Each structure stands twice: as structure tokens, then as C-alpha cells.
Amino acid sequence: MFYLTKNKTGLTLLETTIALGILMIGILASITLMLSSFNYIQATEDEIVVVNLAREGLEIMRSVRNNNSNPPVGQTKIDIFSGSYDNQSYVIDSSVNATLSPGNYLFGVTNISQCSGGTNTACTLYLTPAGRYTHDPTGNERTSFSRLIIIAPSPDYSYEKIITSTVSWQTKNKISTFSLETRLTDWQTQ
Prior knowledge:
This protein has 190 residues and is an alpha+beta fold. It has one domain (38-185). It has one helix at 13-66; strands spanning 88-90, 124-127, 133-134, 141-153, 160-171, 174-185. It is rod-shaped. The chain starts with 12 loop residues before the first helix and ends in a 5-residue tail after the last strand. 18% of the residues are buried. It comes from Candidatus Kuenenbacteria bacterium GW2011_GWA2_42_15. This is Type II secretion system protein. The chain crosses the membrane at residues 12-35. Keywords: Membrane, Transmembrane, Transmembrane helix.
């Protein structure tokens, strides 16, 4: 024979509300953590691109210096140590604008902040369908990155130039900049 007891306990409305509240706090904390992780990942990805773009600018200038002794067919010699390129700003690319021609010179631009936004967007980088960055907007996707190369004379040696590659980018209405600097020597005369 079975006896039914009346002392069965269950969840009251108050207990259920408290349990749901604790569950919601846990879910919101997890969502906040995921969103923060996504933002951090995007910021890290941008920083990696920026560092590589700045390095590429220095490598292009190194290539310009090295090709001075034996320039590619159809290009004239570019001697960055002649003094005619001192304290000037350039937008150069590895393929399209790999020279220091007057078309790549930015008159009156002395730092990257003068390139960003407004009507002067000459420093803006575009992404090609092949995944390369270029200053050529034709058929390419505009990015939030800009790059400027400045050639300056060295205060120490006449056969040395200071090359500064500066990249700026915008994320969430904040403009950031990153610069790399190297010293190139005229190894042909030294």
C-alpha cells in the first residue's frame, strides 16, 4: 500500500526569480567577454598590418637605394644621397610607385596627420584584389591605413640618410600612428 505525504517541497516564485537572475548575470558576463575578445582580436590584426606596412616602406626605400647603381630598364638613377630628396615626403609602393618621381612627392606635407582625412588623401592605402596594399585607388578597396615616407639628412654623416616610414589608421573614431626609422648609408662610396 502507498501513502501520499503532503510535505513535498518545490520551488517558490522567489527562488525561481533569484535562480534566473544569477543565470542572466552569467550569460551577460560571457557575452561581454566574447565582445571584448572580438575587439581585441581586431585591434591586434590592425597592429600587425600597420607594423608590416611600415616595414614595407623601409624595405622599398632600401630597394630604391640598392637599385641606384643598376636601375631597372626604363628608370633613371635615383641617388637619395644627392641632397635633392632631403626633408621631403613620398608615397611609394612596391610595384606601382617604386620610384621617387615628382608624382610621388607630396609638396607641403611634413607629417602623416596632414595626409589623413579631409581632401588630402594621397597617403591613403587601397587593398588590391590580390591582397596587396597600394596607393593606387583604381579598382581597389579603400582601407583605413595611410603611409608616408620621409627622407632626412643624418646629423652625423653626409653619406647617411634617415628614412622614416609612418603609418596611420583609424578605428572607432580614433586615429593612431606608428613609425619606424632606419638609417641608410651610401654603401657604394664608403
